[in-house]
Amino acid sequence: MKRKRIIIMGAAGRDFHNFNCCFRDNPACRVVAFTATQIPYISDRRYPAELAGTLYPHGIPIFPEEQLEELIRRLRAEQVVFAYSDVAHERLMHTASRVLACGADFTLLGPDATMLASRLPVVSVCAVRTGCGKSQVVRYFCDILRERGIRPVVVRHPMPYGDLAAQAVERMESMADLDRFRCTIEEREEYEHLLDHGAIVYAGVDYRRILRRAEKEAAVIIWDGGNNDLPFFRPDLEIVVADPLRPGHETSWYPGEVNLRRAAVVVVNKVNAAEPAAVAAVEGAARSANPSAALVRTESVITVADGGRVRGKRVLVIEDGPTITHGSMPRAPGLPQPASTAPRRWSTRAPGRRARCGMSMPPGPTSGRSSRPWATAPPRWPTWP
Length: 385
Fold this sequence. Notes:
Blueprint: E1 4-10, H1 14-22, E2 29-36, E3 45-47, H2 49-52, E4 60-64, H3 68-74, E5 79-82, E6 87-88, H4 89-101, E7 105-107, H5 111-114, E8 122-127, H6 134-147, E9 153-156, E10 169-172, H7 175-180, H8 185-196, E11 200-204, H9 207-215, E12 221-224, E13 237-242, E14 253-254, H10 256-262, E15 265-268, H11 276-289, E16 294-304, H12 321-325, E17 354-361
Parallel strand pairs: 1-2, 1-5, 2-4, 5-7, 8-12, 8-13, 9-11, 9-12, 13-15, 15-16, 16-17
Antiparallel strand pairs: 3-4, 6-14, 10-11
């Protein structure tokens, strides 16, 4: 039987998951290559044979996305599967046009094909764009579980930037585990705050194995999404965070609009930092796209622990990478803002009511709230992602 030749476009996350779900053991298909983008240094390597399965004894090569047309021709690809997130709708269709012009099919895989079912309740926290404030919501749920005597178990969207085979299943419950798995700075940024809130954190490459292992010690699983991607696990409660500092993005970026339309709860975050008209615009878009979703407003309040240590000093700010590199934000919260206020807890109330969302940061240069949308405010200083 002739196997359909497929290229999967990705960014070291969704692409590997889609492969594992739909192609690893599928004798009708042959994935001839992955392409990589968004994250530096993740191309020019191989998806290892240990993870690729018996149909791929030599693994699968990973190439830079810039070589896409040449790869379609050279590898005689018949189908290209698009499998990464935080992409403008217009750019997505330009990418489809590149593929179709080469004669291949262009495909998006849906939730039914790629969401794994758990025997436990799953709460997913995703977003319409990267940098909306998912982490604050995840910490809130961790605190709820701890208050009830339940150790929170969080499964994080993948960031496998090192040895893929060694990172197939990562379980972390202490800072020492971050050293053991040789986590990058970006990975530590996503894991450390969860460990500080008493969570056991899972991540890696093979999410079917991760799910089965997490189920052995969890009462409920919290899915901590990455970028604006869809959950890998089928959620019982689907929470999606929107950002009024980027009004309009909730319906113009892939797959964030899919998240918006699926959500049971839409959290409109950063209302303290956005113009009222922008908040109203995002809420209007959410109601139009998903009338049945509950709307919750939250504030994202920035504080500094022991801010006196840096007051009046020249400080280097290392901002959140994805928010700056592909999140369409000229800067993240690290640059100086107006005077600070005390952080308050994030709490859900009746739909449409305002809640509070405190975000604590280690000693650094930020103190206070933004009084205007960052998306429209030009950066006053260089930003290092």
